Amino acid sequence: MKIVIIIPTYNERANIGPLLDALQGQFATIEHDMHVLVVDDDSPDGTQDAVRDRMRSMSNLELITGEKQGLGSAYIRGMTHVLRTGSADAVFEMDADFSHKSEDVPRLIAALESGADFVIGSRYVGGGTIPPDWGFLRRMNSRLGNLVARYLAGIYRVKDCTAGFRAIRTSLLSRIDLTDLRVQGYAFQIALLYEAVIRKAKIVEVPVDFIERREGQSKLGLDDILEFLQSALWLRFRSSTTFIKFGIVGSSGVLVNLGAFSLLLLLGMNKYVASAIAIELSIVWNFFLNNAWTFRWRSKHDHFHLRGLKFNAVSFLTLGVSFGTFTSLSLTFPDLSPYLSQLAGIVPAALLNYFLNSYWTFKDQPAGSVHR
Ligand SMILES: Nc1nc2c(ncn2[C@@H]2O[C@H](COP(=O)(O)OP(=O)(O)O)[C@@H](O)[C@H]2O)c(=O)[nH]1
Ligand SMILES: [Mg+2]
Q1: Cα dist from 242 to 290, 323, 353, 354, 367, whole Å
Q2: What's the 209 CA to ligand 2 centre distance in angstroms?
Q3: Which residues make up the environment of ion ligand 2, defined by Cβ < 5 Å?
Q4: Beta-strand (E) ranges in 86-243?
Q5: Is position 366 within any domain?
Q6: Could you count the other beta carbons within 10 Å of the beta carbon of residue 220?
Q7: Are residues 229 and 326 in the same domain?
Q8: Where residue 297 falls among pLDDT bands split at 50, 70, 90?
Q9: Res 298 pLDDT > 70
Q10: Residue of the CA atom closest to atom 5 of ligand 1
Q11: Amino acid 260: pLDDT
C-alpha cells in the first residue's frame, strides 16, 4: 500500500523535525510505501524551515502551505492534494506534537490490512489511555466533546469521535465531498467521521496512549469549540430522519393517548385510571410503530427477546414518569384541567422514551475494536 501521513502544523518548529525523524525511523520497520505530507499554515515560527531542512534527506516528504484557516481546512487541503496527485491507498491524520506515537502507526495499518476503511487511534476503548496527569477539567473537556459527538451528533457507535490519529482508505475518502464539509477547525474530526458512518464504512478503534504535547501550546481555541457545537447540532439535524420518525410516531401516540383518555372520561371512568390506561395504550402503539418503522434499518445490537425485555422496562419507567407527573400535578393543583396534566406528563416521558429506546433498546452495532 502507498500510505501518506498528513500532519497539519501551526507553530510546531520545535516538534516537527524530531517527529519526522521518528517517523522515518519507524518507516524502516514498515513494508508499505510510506510518505509524509506536512500542511503548514504559514507558521510565523519557522516550522517550514524545519520541514524543508528534512526534505533534503527525506525524498518521501512533501510540504504544502497556505494561510491559517484552521485544522479542518488544513486537513481538507492536504487530503484533496493526496487524492488529486497521488495513487495513495490510505492517508493518516496525525498531530505534530508527539501526542500520537510513531510506534502506533503499524498497529493502525494492521487494522487497515484487516479490512477496515476508517481506523481510529482511540483513547476510549479498552487499553487506550489519556495522560495520567491530566486534571479534572482537561478530562471533562475531552469527555464532554465525545459525549456531544456521540449523543448529540449521533455518532454513538464510536467511542473516540474527536481523536486526531486516524488511518483512512482513499477509496472511502474519494466518495466524500471534502469541500462540502463546511468546517474549518477541529469540528472537521466529527464532520468527516459522520460522513464515514453514514456511508457504512468499516470503522475500527485501535487503543492508543495519548501523550501530552512535547513542546509549544495547544491551538484549540474558543472558535473551534463553538464551531464544534454548531457542527454537532447540524449533524443532529442531518441524522434526524430517525428522530423525525420517532417524533411522528410520538405525535401519533399523543393523539392515541389523548383520544383514548377523552373516550374513557366520556365513558365516565375515574380520571386516574383513564390516564394510566391511555398512557399504556400509547406506549404499546409507539413501540409497534418504532420497531417496524423508526428503527427498522438499525443493525440492532440485541437479540429480539432482549429488546422486548428492555422495551418493557422502558415502558414501565416512562409510564411511571408520565403517570407520576399527572398525579402530582393533579394533587398539587386540583383545579387544573386533567388534559393539561396529562399533556405535561407526556413531554418528559416522550424524551426519555426516545433516549432509552434509541441508545439502549434499539442500540446500533458498536464500531469494531481490537485488543492491544
Ligand atoms: N495547519 C494547521 N495546523 C493546525 C491548526 N491548528 C492546529 N493545528 C495542528 O493540529 C495538531 C493538533 O493541534 P493541537 O494544538 O496539538 O491540538 P490538541 O492536541 O487538541 O491540543 C498540531 O499538529 C497543530 O499544529 C491550524 O489552524 N492549521
Ligand atoms: Mg496536541
Answers
A1: 9, 26, 14, 10, 19
A2: 13
A3: 95, 97, 99, 213
A4: 90-93, 118-122, 166-169, 203-207
A5: no
A6: 14
A7: no
A8: low
A9: no
A10: 71
A11: 97
Examine the fold and report which residue of 211, 238, 265 is the final residue of a domain before the chain moves on.
238
Ligand 2 centroid – CA 7 distance (Å):
12
What is the C-alpha to C-alpha distance for residues 58 and 45, in angstroms, rounded to an integer? 22
Same domain, residue pair 354 and 310: yes
pLDDT tens-digit profile of 26-71?
999 999 999 999 999 999 999 999 999 999 999 999 999 999 999 9
Residue type, 276: A
Residue 45 sits in the same domain as residue 181: yes
Q: Are residues 207 and 219 in the same domain?
A: yes
CB count within 10 Å of CB 335 equals 5
Ligand 1 neighbours by CB, cut-off 6 Å:
8-10, 12, 39-41, 68, 70-71, 74, 95-97, 99, 164, 213, 218-220
Closest CA to 187 of 221, 139, 143: 221
End residue of a domain, out of 214, 238, 262: 238
CATH number at residue 125: 3.90.550.10
Mutate-to-test residue for ligand 1 from 102, 219, 228, highest number of ligand atoms within 8 A of CB? 219
**Phi, psi of 302, rounded to the nearest 5 degrees:** -95, 155
The verdict on 349 and 222 lying in the same domain is: no
Residue nearest to atom 19 of ligand 1 (CA): 218
Same domain, 22 and 167: yes
Query: What percentage of the chain reaches a pLDDT higher than 70?
Result: 99
pTM for the predicted model, two decimal places: 0.79
298 and 163 in one domain? no
Contact 94, 208 (CB under 8 A): no
